């Protein structure tokens, strides 16, 4: 695993140089939508920071505003109030250094796995008008390395309809990793997977992050997942989402879900959410 991550780093000239992770500052962000002429407040004065290379989970009830917040961080929308910054600069639009993986992998059905993972490099190819040569070879090496990172080397020529749900989500992850992101934004990425695949992919994600050290912002409504993966869990209220707690989790990786420390933290977080068990 480490060797592959190094290979990915060595060929990083294709995209931005390996950054070691973006710093994200969300400052006093409030957001509302217009719904049938009335204002629908979705985020209320939300502030938090993601340190470079940190793994932060955003945990909150369904419909509280988590995806809305991620869209602001990804630059897909701008907040009604407050600011979102990456490395000190206001986020004004999407950027290849911030990659979003959604719950549905949305692969192009007519492209192979390799073709889907190669979308980022292909866009660069068009932008910088490469004509084969060293850059093209580097791009192909990066695609190979990304496929190896997610364990799909043998399926490079398969089409999406030939993949399981877990494999499709791995393709989406490889498609993100090939761009050498400074920030990986994950919106309930394992939400639709069966529980065994989910457990496996949680472990894989933790290892990928440890090797590569990009920053991660993971949205989940699963307390266990948040605690298993993140160094810090930010807990949100019901809509309009406001931060109700921040729980630091310094348990070493690899983590085990039955670790007594995680079990205690789980109880603490559930209590914050008003779910005393
Ligand atoms: N584009 C939109 N227009 C109007 N309302 C929206 C829009 N996007 C989301 N919402 C509403 O905002 C609230 C929060 O949605 P969302 O951020 O997707 O929640 P979560 O991801 O936490 O489940 C929901 O009530 C949803 O209906
Ligand atoms: Mg959502």
UniProtKB/TrEMBL annotation:
It holds the Pfam family ABC_tran. Keywords: ATP-binding, Cell inner membrane, Cell membrane, Membrane, Nucleotide-binding, Translocase, Transport. Residues 24-263 form the ABC transporter domain. The keyword Nucleotide-binding applies. SMART domains: AAA. InterPro entries: AAA+_ATPase, ABC_transporter-like_ATP-bd, ABC_transporter-like_CS, ABC_transporter_ATP-bind, P-loop_NTPase. Belongs to the ABC transporter superfamily. This is NitT/TauT family transport system ATP-binding protein.
């Amino acid at each position: 695993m480490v060797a592959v991550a190094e290979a990915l780093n060595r060929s990083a000239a294709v995209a931005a140089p390996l950054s070691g992770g973006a710093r994200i500052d969300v400052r006093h962000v409030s957001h509302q939508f217009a719904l049938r002429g009335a204002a629908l407040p979705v985020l209320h004065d939300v502030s938090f920071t993601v340190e470079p290379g940190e793994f932060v989970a955003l945990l909150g009830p369904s419909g509280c505003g988590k995806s809305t917040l991620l869209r602001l961080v990804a630059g897909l929308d701008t907040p009604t109030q407050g600011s979102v910054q990456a490395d000190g600069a206001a986020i004004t639009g999407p950027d290849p250094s911030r990659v979003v993986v959604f719950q549905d992998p949305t692969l192009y059905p007519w492209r192979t796995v390799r073709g889907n993972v190669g979308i980022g490099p292909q866009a660069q190819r068009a932008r910088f008008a490469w004509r084969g040569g060293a850059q093209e070879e580097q791009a192909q090496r990066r695609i190979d390395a990304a496929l190896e990172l997610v364990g799909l080397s043998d399926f490079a020529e398969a089409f999406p309809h030939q993949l399981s749900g877990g494999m499709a989500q791995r393709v989406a992850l490889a498609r993100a990793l090939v761009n050498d992101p400074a920030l990986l934004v994950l919106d309930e990425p394992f939400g639709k997977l069966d529980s065994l695949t989910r457990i496996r992919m949680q472990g894989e994600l933790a290892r990928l992050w440890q090797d590569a050290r990009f920053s991660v912002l993971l949205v989940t409504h699963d307390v266990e997942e948040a605690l298993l993966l993140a160094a810090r869990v930010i807990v949100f209220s019901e809509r309009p989402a406001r931060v109700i707690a921040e729980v630091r989790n310094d348990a070493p990786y690899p983590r085990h879900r039955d670790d007594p420390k995680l079990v205690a933290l789980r109880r603490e977080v559930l209590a914050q959410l008003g779910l005393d068990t």
